[in-house]
Model the fold of this input.
Amino acid sequence: MITVSSLTLELGERVILENLEFQLEPGRTLVVMGKNGSGKSVLLKTIAGLITGYAGTVDTGNAKIAYVFQKGGLFDSIDVFRNVAFPLRNSGLAENKIEEIVTGSLESVGLKNAGAKYPSELSGGMQKRVGLARALVQDAQVILYDDPTAGLDPILSDAIADLMNDIRARTGAASIVATHDLKVARKVADCVMLLYTGRPVFYGSADEFFSKSDSFARQFIEGDIDGPIDVYKL
Ligand SMILES: Nc1ncnc2c1ncn2[C@@H]1O[C@H](COP(=O)(O)OP(=O)(O)OP(=O)(O)O)[C@@H](O)[C@H]1O
Ligand SMILES: [Mg+2]
Done:
């Protein structure tokens, strides 16, 4: 169980997150939405322990956390296979077991034959999928997905959403997904948090969010310039 309470974070003298409050049970998926710069990545990094110095509490119960980085986060100097195997090094697993896990993970993201390639030889979407494959091998109880379908075509995005649901069903991991992709959100979310000026202006079930009964949710879903969200306000 992840428990975040009264989480407030300032960076460079600006409040980036203000008084966030939520709980997430194993097997549940929270989708965090909000315009560019609204604090989605910062929230994920804070939960992962990559950003400290906040007020309030972030309790992940010592769960093993896997992070799918917004920009792939791959090592340029090693091939795809080694990138995906990286979290398993020093795990004590035998080499043939590592190979089996890595191959299975690459296969699940549709990159069975890409193991010997280097990140620079891959398209952006392929790099993104390698990042996902690397998160999958970790057997984590919490998975943080930062914009997992950004730059992917609509069909692949749909496949990634299915994969995220498979992983959830298979591992019972709790997931937090930062995304702008409404179709993916619709498919994977149990609950949705919409961030604006550091605050959760909507937090509720996915059904309630997509019913558009909330004015913030409606403006965001419709991509409308008119509404309570000011496009230029950070
Ligand atoms: N290390 C940092 N120091 C100071 N400010 C930062 C730092 N990291 C992020 N910020 C600021 O925090 C705000 C939120 O950034 P964040 O990357 O979380 O946005 P986001 O919601 O993920 O946006 P996007 O949809 O573009 O990915 C931005 O205004 C950004 O400039
Ligand atoms: Mg981001």
